[in-house]
Request: fold
Amino acid sequence: MMFVGFGPIMETVTPKQSAPIPRQSLSAAVVERLTEKILSGELREGEQLRQDAIATEFQISRIPVREALSHLAAEGLITIVANRGAVVSALSPGEIMELFETRAVLECYMLRCAIPNMKEDEFKRAEDILRQYEQSLENDSEVKSWGRWNWSFHSALYAPANRPVMLSFLKKLNINCDRYTRLHLVFTRDLHRAGQTHRELLDVCKTKDPELASAALWKHITDAGEYLKEFIKRHREQHS
Reply:
């Protein structure tokens, strides 16, 4: 048998170029940045969002900005107003309460569906998330993560219901509520109570009684809504 040997083949290696960032990813990044500005209060209620100004700030074209604004409008964080364009949504105290009532109806239903399917692993995951949430509440530099931890805890309780469409809708509702919840926590410093009420809710869920757990959740959400409704009313009167 005859073997043919090959000498080393010299190749010119050129630097590998990264694929360009898809426009959709750019739009998602703008959504994330604008969402944080709205939730933190940097962009105030009623403030106009100009596409050209945002494009200049982020050094991008207006196309991904337009896509981002459409996304934020669908989530309810901004409103498209005739002759003004996009403005940060301003919910009345009554609308804020209605938002929390909607959350209460859907989330209590989700929890009733989830409780029979909950196993020890689900409770442990919720416990771990709650511990991290409580730790973040002790650190002012973590303020922008409070809403994310709050939703992570609640969604961990609802996940066993196996209703992904409803869970996705609830996430949007929670994002819209987050800016008012965060404002309340920042101004009142009622951080210990925020952690305590979630721990009480988890303890009730561990009884695996769907009606008892949903009743506790209903009180948890509607009490927060009532408190926020009054807080936002007073806050706006003081800053008007």
